[in-house]
Amino acid sequence: MVNAAEAGALVDAVVRCCADPAYEGKTMGVISLRGAKGHLTELENLLAERLEYEQRAERRIRVGDAEDFQGDERNVMFVSCVNSATTAAGTVPGGFNGKTYEQRLNVAASRAQDQVWVFHSARPEQFHENDLRRRWLDHLTRPAEEDTAAVEGEVRADVRHEAFDSLFQQKVYLELTARGHRVRPGYRVGRHTIDLVVEGGTRRLAVACDGDAFADGEDASTAAARQRDLERVDWTFVRIRGSRFHLDREQALAPLWAELERLGIEPLPEQPEVPGFPAEGADSQLPSAAGWSEDDGAEESREGERPQGPSPVTGAAPVAAPEAVVSAASAEDPRTPWPDLVVDAAPEPAPGSTHSVARNSLPVQEIPAAAFHRLVREMQELQTAIDAPDETPVDVDAANLVFLRKTQADQRERRTKRFGFLRSFLDAVHVGREEEMPKAVFPGALLVLEFDGQIDETTLYTIAELTTEDADVISPSSPLGHALMWQETGREISYDASQDRAHSVVVREIRV
Question: Could you tell me where the beta strands, DSSP code E, fall in 312-394?
Answer without folding.
Answer: 319-321, 324-330, 366-368
